[in-house]
Amino acid sequence: MPSRRQALSVLGVVSTLVLTGFAAVDASQSTSGATPRSNLRVMAPAAPGGGWDLASREFQQALRGGAVVNNVQVINVPGAGGTIGLSQFVEIGADPTQLMMTGTVMEGAINVNGSSVDLLDTTPIARLAEDYEVIVVPADSPYETLEDFLEVWRENPQGHAVGGGGLGGTDHLLTGLVAREADVDPEQVNYVAYAGGGEVLTALLSRTVEIGVSGYNDFRDQIEAGNVRALAVSAEEPVEGIDTPTFIEQGIDVALPNWRGLVAPPGITDEQRRELIAVVDEAVQTQEWADALDRNKWEDSFLSGEDFTEFIREDQARVDAIIEELGL
């Protein structure tokens, strides 16, 4: 981990839980005799349109375009920072035709929501890529630069609402880390949690919050259209294609990658795990995946097998420590 990097890399409606739970069980039963090459399901543990959904569907296109898998489907199980999907996923059983997209946000949600299961209760397959957070303001905001906002934030942390994703997620962590580096008490920050970047954007444009925090791709269209202005990006170094300075370039020593990766259910055999790793490895070598990395400004960070397991163990510990330290 680079020395300058200080950071890492709600329950749903009852009927939704019942329906999605049934879908998960039914999926397990219906794949009897199938293999990852013939039939594969990828769970996006979030609503359509979010970061996990985007990553899942880009991965789906890579599998299809590269003819890696005959049939691949994406299913959405939203709620509680991905922990509802996680809790259902670990109950599927040892089915090698199931994968779940995961990442930094879920690590925070596991801690904050007191989840009874964590990512080490799954079978880690591979980390795919990292993307980055941005903080944005409406185009007519008086805050032209990051420092413009930090000046007023220091004076009255509770008087300036910051909108982001679920408690303990990447948006929340970034807000707390930036506050600490800017000499603002993280526990005094007026952080308003939303279900995803779309709701954050709506709150920002309706002036419900002054600052919006989310993944770059959640705001990209509005940034390019000139409706919102990005003040900083959470990368360690400038990102090609993102015309926004990093926090580090502006004197705030914070970098926060938001990784995306895939896990399988617990209990699959070593041979089945190796086959799933091979499937993912082939997918990330396709032109479709290369195009996805470029289009979404993602950074390739492929890591598989036991190396990925160890990364999850260390990263979860790091997230837990940050949440405790910041009082989030």
TrEMBL record:
Keywords: Signal. It comes from the Bacteria. InterPro entries: BUG, Bug_dom1. SUPFAM superfamilies: Periplasmic binding protein-like II. Gene3D superfamilies: Bordetella uptake gene, domain 1, Periplasmic binding protein-like II. Residues 1-23 form the signal peptide. Pfam families: TctC. Belongs to the UPF0065 (bug) family. This is Tricarboxylic transport membrane protein. It comes from Actinoalloteichus fjordicus.
